[in-house]
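Bench log. Compound arrived from synthesis this morning; before running ITC I wanted a structural hypothesis for how nicotinamide-adenine-dinucleotide sits in the protein. Inputs:
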Amino acid sequence: MARVGFIGLGNMGGGMAANLAKNGHDVRAFDLSEEALAKAKAAGCLPVASAAEAADGAEAIVTMLPAGKHVEQVYTESLFGSASPSAILIDCSTIDVATAKRVAEAAAAKGLTAVDAPVSGGIAAANAGTLTFMVGGSAEAFARAEPFLSNMGKAVIHAGISGAGQAAKICNNMILGATMVATCEAFVLAEKLGLDAQAFYDIASVSSGQSWSITSYCPIRGVGPQSPADNDYQGGFAAALMLKDLRLAMEAAEQSGTQTPMGAKARELYEAFADAGHGGQDFSGIIRTLGQRT
Ligand code: NAD
């Protein structure tokens, strides 16, 4: 078993660090929050006083931070000065592709190896160790990161070169945002046309309109498998996080000169939803702004 540095013990990182400890690793954990540090300690990690201390002597250094600016700051101000060249640096945060590439290049210039490894799956999957990781970096870097990621997830996929993990994440979530809005619209229209929601589900879930948004996460209460719709749109994947991912996707689209009109519309709708004070609700709750009656 290895010594692992873990920085960022929030909603996601807390459970991920706990799973590394459960798998026998010596986890040196750091967060700016005392509460997060106390939780990590209770989960079997050793709280330390700084990110540099977490990185010192570690074979793997995992970061799970809010955004690109936090990752860049922790890498440049703490990890570059303290990580050993034999360590693998694994950033699991969802950040913009450009920062992910820049950070990996800066690491390489310091003789360090870094991968971007954002996740699919929410807090429940982080706690259960059933996340999906999409990894950007060389084949050699992927091979070094994979055993640690396997301790925290059910699937670890090599997406390609540095930044490819983040690219996969935002492209996937752009599909998700757009299909959720389309699914919500279809259920509202079906209802207005006098079609029973269950009947429409039974048809669409085995027809060409089928998607994960319908069959795994149906936005209608009492229809399909259990989902946040059954819990008044609480829990699940917060609309604010969907908006974050859609903003990253639109930023990448603009930088790469890609036309993404559906993604842009989904971003606009989630922006309005969050601005109206619903950012903490599950993202399927957007159906309420589309005229849902039931
Ligand atoms: P969070 O805000 O709960 O946790 C982030 C943690 O980072 C906090 O505890 C904060 O104190 C800590 N932090 C910030 N700056 C720091 C620094 N300089 N040094 C040390 N610690 C620092 O966020 P989260 O929900 O755990 O999400 C983390 C990342 O995972 C984000 O990039 C998010 O987009 C992504 N993500 C979240 C979910 C989800 O469902 N929550 C799902 C997939 C991906």
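What the model suggests: The chain has twelve helices and nine strands. The longest helix spans residues 164-192.
ITC booked for Thursday regardless.
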